[in-house]
Design brief:
Order of helices and strands: HHHH
Oligomer: single chain
Number of helices: 4
Radius of gyration: 16 Å
Number of strands: 0
Helix content: over 70%
């Protein structure tokens, strides 16, 4: 396992997720006293893991075939739609 790649990936994802809509949603859910903070954490962590799995397993292999410009363009269009 390449530790440099592991640490770089961790910090890139961690910094990218700070202050985004997902984090704000988790703050709102965990602020509600009727919800378990552990349940909110496990739900959000599971969603991030699943999203990362989809990116690595399904999108990354397509990247060299369709080209980086097309993948980035689709990401930007999808992000703006949300």
């Amino acid at each position: 396992m390449d530790m440099k790649l592991l640490v770089t990936t961790f910090w890139m994802v961690f910094l990218a997720e700070l202050g985004d809509k997902t984090q704000l949603a988790m703050i709102c859910l965990s602020a509600d006293c009727s919800h378990s903070k552990l349940t909110v954490f496990l739900g959000s962590a599971s969603a991030l893991v699943l999203g990362s799995l989809v990116s690595v397993m399904f999108v990354a292999p397509v990247f060299p075939i369709v080209g980086s410009a097309m993948v980035v363009n689709e990401f930007v269009v999808g992000a703006q739609a949300v």
